[in-house]
Amino acid sequence: MAAAGVSATGVSAMRIARFAHEGREQWGRVEGDLVRASVEPLTLAEVAASDGMLERSIPLADVALLAPVLPDTKILCVGLNYRDHVAETGRELPDKPVIFTRYPDSLVGPDAAIVVPAVSHRLDFEAELAVVIGAGGRAIPAERALDHVLGYTLLNDGSVRDFQRHTSQFTPGKNFEASGSVGPWIVARDAVGDLGPQRITLTLGGEQLQSSTLDQLIFGIPELIAYISTFTPLQPGDIIATGTPGGVGSVRSPRRWMTPGEKVVVAVEGIGELRNPIVGEAA
Question: Is the pTM of the predicted complex or chain greater than 0.85?
Fold first, then answer.
């Protein structure tokens, strides 16, 4: 794993985070053990574009990092997009991206608890690289799609498998409150470099259960942005979760679920780690 603030390419990485401090939530930049922010809250785009407006320096230890999403953020997820994951499910490679959506309240931030719902214990894990849109648009050509990317973050696409499989539609199993996570920050695209060799992993209860590389993606980020923006306009801050690699709990023998009392860690080289405890839903 690259050192904090340094990407896998060796370039100093701009890391943008949403955080809470003294009762206020806002965007800022994580620089070493500090968060730089403005006296007056700025938008995500303003924090990404401007150094001069970030006049406050707050110790990172004094803030709570939050999920980098807002109530109106579109979260578009891609299923069956890693070759090794498609192989373990016994399915054919998809001809078109498999797209579903998540609601912002289904995701918590770093170090916040992922909740196993009372109605099901089959909460599966899915480590994912997520793309954060910087410049919006509709019908974006694939050859210009990366110009619309602000950066990358991590996502655990927690999936309540029995509810996911009640019908052919994924929505119920993907949207239980606090069933997944996203964060801990957004790393600028230029600092990450070309995607492909970076390793993506997931560790649950101290056991590594997923390990792959980003070159296993069936549909790359330009193709995903072009396809998705064909049917919906993308806005700054929108998130595209690019799919999970092989090793998910539902295809293991015995099956492996996220269980209260455990901790789950998603990691991608050059991005960082997304850590979350797991708890049961309160009665």
Answer: yes
